[in-house]
Amino acid sequence: MSTTEDGRGPQRSHTPPDAHGGAVPPAGVDPERTFFGHPIGLSSLFSIELWERFSFYGMQGILTFYLYFSVADGGLGLPQATALSLVGVYGGFVYLSSVAASFVADRLLGAERTVRYAAVLVMFGHLALALVPGLTGLAIGLISIGLGSGGVKTASQVVLGQLYSAEDRRRDGGFTLYYLGVNIGALVGPLLTGWVWGREGFHWGFGLAAVGMAVGLIHYLLTRKKNLGTAGREVPSPLPKNRYLPWGLGVAAAAIVVVALIATGVVRLEWLSTIMAATAALAAAAMLISMYRSPKVTPEERRRLIGFIPLLVSSAAFWAIYQTQFTMLAVYFESRVDLQVFGIEITPAQLDSISPFFVVVFSVPFSIMWTKLGDRQWSSPMKFGAANLLIGLGLLLFVPFVGSGANATPVWLVVAAIFLFVMGELLLSPVGNSLATRVAPRYYSSRLFAVWLMSVSVGSSLSGSFGSIFDMSTDAGEAAFFTTAAGATIVVGLVVLLLRGWILRRLEPIR
C-alpha cells in the first residue's frame, strides 16, 4: 500500500541550512512554531496526505464490489472480469498520473498550487461517485480521483522536501512522519467506508470518502500560508506560453481517441488493464532507451541502468500480486472467507486495513534493523528476490482451502498471507525508492524515478488483467490463479537471486 508512497524521488531543496544543520524556514513562517520538532509546514502536509489516503483507500476498498455486485445489491452489475480490469487500470492510472503531476508542478503551477488543485479534484471525484449514478458517475469519479491522487501524492512530497535543507539532519525523520500519516489514512479509510457500506450502501461509503478529503482540504487551506510560506510556490522550469496550445491540443486529442475507441467497442473494458500495463511498460522502455543513448550519460551510468532492469521486472511482478488485494483477492474475500471476527461480522473491504496496520507496526523496526546492520545488510537484489518469494508464499497459503466452499477460509489465514505481503513490501518498496535515486544518471534523476513508478503502474494494471484469465467462481479457476501467480513471482524472485552477482557488478559501487 504504500511504502511506495513515501518515495520522494530526487528533491530540490530551496531552504538554506542554519548553523546547526537545520533549516531556515521559508519566508513567512514563524521559526518558533514546530511539529514534533520539525518545520510546522509538515503538519499541513501530514494532514492533507492522511485524509487523501483515507479517501483513496476507503473508496478503493469498496470499488470492486460496487462494480460487480448486482443492481439489486446497490452495485453496477458489471461482469466480474470487466470489474477487475477497471480496478486494475485505475490503479495503474494513478501511478501514471504521478508522472504527469510532476510535469504540472515543475512546468505549470508549482508544487504547492498543484497540491491544492489536485485535492479539489479528488474531492470532486468522490462526490461524483456518491451522487452521480451509473457509469457516468464512475467514469467522472475515477478519472478525477486518479488525476488528483497522483497530484497530491507527488507534489506534497516536493513541498515537504523544500522545508528542509539538504544537510538538515531532521529530513529523513520528517519523511518518516509524513509516511506515518499516509498509512494512518490507509488504515482507517477502509475500516470506516467498509462499515458505512455494510450499513447504508456504496454511495454513502463514497460520500464518507468525499467528507474525509474535504476535512483535509479545509485544514490545508486554513494553514498553508502560515505554515508553508513560500515553499513550493516556485515553478522551476516554466513551460513557454507558446507551447501551451500544442500541449493542450495533444492531451485533448489523446483523450478523445481513447474515449472514441471505448465508446465504439473497438477497445473492450476488460482489455483496459492489459492495455494500461503495456502502455506503462512501453513508456518505461522508451525512457530507459533514451537515457541509455544520451551523450550526457557516462559509461558507468549506462552500466547501472542495465543492472537496474531486472529489479524493475521484479517490482512489476511483486505489485501485480500485491494489488490483487483490490481485485482477485477482494473477490475471494467476499465469497470464501469467514468474515466473523470475535462474533462481529465485518465487510470484505475492511480486510484492506490489515496491510497498512502491518506497515505502521514494522516499518520503523525494519529501518532500525538496516541501520544497525550497516554494510552487513542484504544487498538490493537479495531484498528484491526475497520480496518476490515472500509474496508468492503468501498466495500459496490459500491453496489448501481451494474448493472448501463459501465462507470456509478462516480470517487468520488472510492475516497471515497479508503479513507475508507486507514483509515483502518493506523489503522492496523503500529500497526501490532509494535505489532509483542513487542509480539515476546525473542529468536524468527525475526520469529514472518516473521509470520506477512505471514498474508499479505495470504491476497494478496486471492485477486487474488476472480477472480475464482466471475465473474465481470455480474451484479450478481459484486453484489456477493461486498456483500460477505464486509460481510466476517465485520464479522471478529466484532468477533475481541467481543474477544478484551480475546485477551488483553493474550497479557498483551501489549495493
UniProtKB/TrEMBL annotation:
Gene3D superfamilies: MFS general substrate transporter like domains. It is found in: Cell membrane; Membrane. It comes from the Bacteria. Residues 1-24 are annotated as: Disordered. Its main location: membrane. It is a multi-pass membrane protein. One of its GO terms (biological process) is oligopeptide transport. One of its GO terms (molecular function) is peptide transmembrane transporter activity. It comes from Corynebacterium otitidis ATCC 51513. GO terms for cellular component: plasma membrane. This is Amino acid/peptide transporter (Peptide:H+ symporter). InterPro entries: Dipep/tripep_permease, MFS_trans_sf, MFS_Transporters, POT_fam, PTR2_symporter_CS. Keywords: Cell membrane, Membrane, Transmembrane, Transmembrane helix, Transport. Belongs to the major facilitator superfamily. Proton-dependent oligopeptide transporter (POT/PTR) (TC 2.A.17) family. The chain crosses the membrane at residues 54-71, 83-105, 117-143, 177-198, 204-223, 244-265, 271-293, 305-333, 353-373, 385-403, 409-428, 449-469, 481-503. The keyword Ribonucleoprotein does not apply.
